[in-house]
Amino acid sequence: MSRPAGREPRRLTRWWRRRSLRSRLTVIAATAIAVSVFVAFQVASELMDWELRDTAENQLRADSRVLATDAQRAGPAQVQLPPYPGSGRLVRVILPDGSTRTPAGQPALPPVSEQAERVAQGTSADLMESNDSEEGYLIYTLRAGDGAVQVAQVADDSPINQFGFGMLLIGLFCAAGGALVGRTVARTGLAPIDRLTAAAVRVAQTRDLDADIPDEGGGEIRRLIRSINDMLAALRDSRRAQRLLAEDATHELKTPLTSLRLNVELLIRLDRRGTLDSALPAESRTRLLNDLGAQVAELSTLVAELTDLARGDVSDENTELLDLADVVVAAATRARSRTPDVEVALDVTSVWVSGRPAALQRAVLNLIDNAGKWSPADQPVQVRLRAEEASAVLEVDDAGPGIDAADVPRVFDRFYRADSARALPGSGLGLSIVQRVVDAHGGRATVARSARGGALLRIDLPAAAPPAPIAPLTAGEDSAAR
After folding, report:
1. What is the pLDDT of residues 422-453, one digit of tens each?
2. Which of 37, 56, 283, 437 is most buried, with most CB under 10 Å away?
3. Looking at residue 463, what DSSP letter applies?
């Protein structure tokens, strides 16, 4: 059973990918030098072969002219052919009848070719040809009198072979030297990478994110080290934020959980004694149950806000072009349904922004809820939206006591609650979520004192160009569309 044709290349690819970068660079350097030597050998061999052949052909032509001059003077049949000296060129005279004359003691040449016979018959003046026999003769035929003369030389490939052998030795030496140089260059060039890898492994093993990697090397290595150090700094910030979130969440959850546990234990203890009805009159029992419901609602809100804050992003929804006025109206509607006793006065104009509608609505709702806690019963929460230069400006103010100057810098901190707000319901996360949503949209959230004496919370978001209106179809276009 034969193997699939593509299995071997895939196996070779997997083997190559498993090699280290140092080994790859070594192989690539050695291969590049070997290929360069091979290409140089091929080109040099062709040039040498062409040069040797051209020299041999010129020599054969010169010798043929001398012999042809003698043959024309004495005639092909009478020209003197000295005995063969044992080496050197070979000669032959072709007579008009097709027979040949050769010097005494000379080795036999290959039979006269048809092309050479045509030269002897006067059809052509000369002929240079190569014989493909074992000896490999290079034969030149030249017209002489009523016949022709031939001068031949054994094709000698020994210079080419010697040159090839020398180039092979040089190629092997260069490939070995290239592998050594490639290995040295790879070791030197990858030394910062090795130290970087060791530092990264140390960080992974010790989980010590405070150990920055030394900034060394240059170019790409330095950029890589700086990128990893920036990543470590981001991980440190993330871990610190998670730790603070866990600590703050533990602190904030402790009070409502303790109160809830004490109330539930009181009900269980009275129920077990059978004195629930006598110990707690209906009015007190109703008040206790209402407190339990409020505490559960507070815990649910706190857990939801903690979950939203711990996700690290605003939401999974996509950014879209939207009218912020629609978002504000929807948030005000939700605020009225949640707290019917709080009046919300709207003064909004259409301003288009690029953002996530659900996240923006949550931020606006948190602002209105925060203002509703402080606004007196006879004073509405005022919500204003307008375009100001290249920004969409949203303002929410109340007629409450306002925010103390000492509390202003920490208004948007997580879990921060002013001393005056300790008795009010809330988790201290609402404005922190507002800050995170605004930051994610490239905006800015600020706090000031309103003209009514309360708090004025302002959001500035980058405005966007409104979408182009869709042109109405004419009667002809409408019928064509149908």
Report:
1. 444 444 567 877 888 898 889 998 888 888 87
2. 437
3. B
Query: CA-CA distances (angstroms) from residue 330 to 314, 365, 466?
Result: 19, 9, 20
pLDDT at 292 > cutoff 90: no
pLDDT at position 135, please? Answer: 63
Could you tell me the two tokens for 200? 């990264």
Copy the structure tokens of residue 185: 């260059």
- Beta strand spans in 352-429 (E): 352-355, 381-388, 391-397
3-state secondary structure of 374: helix
33 burial level (CB within 10 Å; 0-12, 13-18, 19+): buried
Contact between residue 186 and residue 25 where contact means Cβ atoms under 8 Å apart: yes
Give the span between the Cα atoms of 328 and 344, in whole angstroms.
Answer: 11
Query: Of 395, 318, 397, 399, which Cα lies nearest the Cα of 349?
Result: 395
Mapped to the 3 state alphabet, what secondary structure does 285-334 carry? HHHHHHHHHHHHHHHHHHHHHHHHHHCCCCCCCCCEEEEHHHHHHHHHHH
